[in-house]
Design a protein that fits this description.
Elements (H helix, E strand, L loop, with lengths): L1 E8 L4 H19 L6 E8 L5 E2 L2 E2 L7
Parallel strand pairs: 1-2
Antiparallel strand pairs: 3-4
Length: about 60
């Protein structure tokens, strides 16, 4: 079994997340030789006020 954990900022539409999960599953299955059904993907969504870069919260950055 393979478990892929993805951490990203919240707010992406469900169709984008579905596509990401599908593609990650396909690639992991192909590259690692695991059955498609044995690939797990966990999406962790973080609020913009809980993630920072360069000492600045994403919620405080303009245009993000």
């Amino acid at each position: 079994m393979v478990v892929l954990k993805v951490t990203m900022l919240e707010g992406r539409p469900p169709e984008k997340k579905r596509e990401l999960v599908r593609r990650l599953t396909e690639m992991a299955s192909r590259l690692l030789g695991e059955p498609y059904e044995e690939v797990r993907v966990i999406l962790y969504e973080v609020r913009r006020d809980q993630w920072a870069a360069g000492g600045v919260l994403f919620s405080d950055k303009e245009g993000t």
